[in-house]
Amino acid sequence: MPSLSVRHLLGIKDLTREDIELIFETADTFKEVINRPIKKVPSLRDITIANVFFENSTRTRLSFELAEKRLSADVVNFSSSGSSVKKGETLLDTVNNILAMKVDMIVMRHSSPGAPHYLSKHIKANVVNAGDGTHEHPTQALLDAFSIREKLGSLEGKKIAIIGDILHSRVALSNIFCLQKLGAEVMVCGPITLIPKYIQELGVKVEYDVRKALQWCDVANVLRIQLERQQIKYFPSLREYSLYYGIDKALLDSLNKEIILMHPGPINRGVELTSDAADSQHSIILQQVENGVSVRMAVLFLLAQMNQ
Amino acid sequence: MPKRLILDSRLLDITITRLCQQLIENHDTFEQSVILGLQPKGVFLAKHIQSKLQELTGKNVPTGYLDTTFYRDDFRRRETPLLANTTHVPFIIENKKVILIDDVLFTGRSIRAALDAMIAFGRPHKVELLVLIDRKYSRDLPIEPHYVGQHVNTILSQRVLVEWTEKGATENAIWLVDTQDTTG
């Protein structure tokens, strides 16, 4: 009987292809569950999960919370704003205090890369990384790949372009690992200042012309410009960025080909995507959000079995 | 592992025909009846029952598959992890007569989980249970079948093996297998 090869979900880098496929197969069954008249199953009724968010989040946090509740887990939410972290409590102390309340699983978002890895070495509970700085965001990559698989049947040999702020994006890194493990070809595209040096070492193609990237790919995963992580100016203005790297429906139509448009959210409408592109027939952005719940249910369900 | 044949292909066919005749007695036109096969192995029996009913009555009784993985009471208490199967219920079960079908009835815990799983799709008018093999004296819960292919006396160290050609077996057969070697 297959099971995950890991006790924690810290990053896609740690997963095997078999792990990812098992998550997808389990997510398929949960997708059916969340479309039933009664969208809840009692699988995790004896488990308590803490959502520990040291950084802002809307979509990921809501999605995790919904996944946990659909699985009948008890859920406690913690956010660092207004907490004792502001009084100087360490990460480990904060989490140990939460664990003292008999919590079985921690879903954590933190601005420091490696924070969930550090935590997993010091506590018994399962740790799920919901994003650690500019490092990884594994569940986002899983739901992105799951959405492509749903649309195209398989990722083997498919061409995926990740377009935008690659330098500051944890979604980009997790996506690169995930897509490559599943046999897809990956290209990154963006202004030269937002493409990390030596990214070719990861086996990805690099393109600076957005039209060429769109002509090459089957799927375009468009990323947000993360102004909150940018300490210096990487391009003259948002207006200029949108002029050279923004995608609109006219550009998509001019390609004269089938193309799938994705975005991890939140969208800066009018910057990386115009509204007519984001809401066009090419877009599967809302399917990504729906799949986020079933993929996270699958992750929690499979990890819960690793902590017996 | 020694094994003893309980039903061969011919006897199995006779048994399935008899079970269908019993269903016809109670469900008449099958106007308000639906079949739910329990994943994984009850599905094969459900398909056999459905096609035999079609042969005998000309009626195509709506048939779906129900997976009970997420409703089991032994989650995180097992040696081996649970793996979910597909649930496919392409009809409304509200106010219907549901015939739950499984291959082997043992402790009754799978059926308890199936009842929970089924309620997620609505409130049936009535639920009946059909099993091919009833392992007597092994129930953990007060659950009894309405239709039984064969009652078998078993001990805990034995298991019932149901082989279907659809699963790659050379012919349909049901065996009683000793999982412990008692020769020495």
UniProtKB/TrEMBL annotation, chain A:
Residues 156-302 form the Aspartate/ornithine carbamoyltransferase Asp/Orn-binding domain. Pathway: Pyrimidine metabolism; UMP biosynthesis via de novo pathway; (S)-dihydroorotate from bicarbonate: step 2/3. Keywords: Pyrimidine biosynthesis, Transferase. One of its GO terms (molecular function) is amino acid binding. It is an enzyme of class 2 (transferase). Gene3D superfamilies: Aspartate/ornithine carbamoyltransferase. Carbamoyl phosphate binds at R59, T60, R109, H137, Q140, G265, P266. Pfam families: OTCace (PF00185), OTCace_N (PF02729). It catalyses: carbamoyl phosphate + L-aspartate = N-carbamoyl-L-aspartate + phosphate + H(+). Its EC number is 2.1.3.2. Catalyzes the condensation of carbamoyl phosphate and aspartate to form carbamoyl aspartate and inorganic phosphate, the committed step in the de novo pyrimidine nucleotide biosynthesis pathway. This is Aspartate carbamoyltransferase. It comes from Xanthocytophaga agilis. The gene is pyrB.
Automatic annotation (TrEMBL), chain B:
SUPFAM superfamilies: PRTase-like. Pfam families: Pribosyltran (PF00156). The keyword Methyltransferase does not apply. Its EC number is 2.4.2.9. Keywords: Glycosyltransferase, Transferase. It comes from the Bacteria. One of its GO terms (molecular function) is uracil phosphoribosyltransferase activity. Residues 7-153 form the Phosphoribosyltransferase domain. The keyword Transferase applies. This is Bifunctional pyr operon transcriptional regulator/uracil phosphoribosyltransferase PyrR. It comes from Xanthocytophaga agilis. The gene is pyrR.
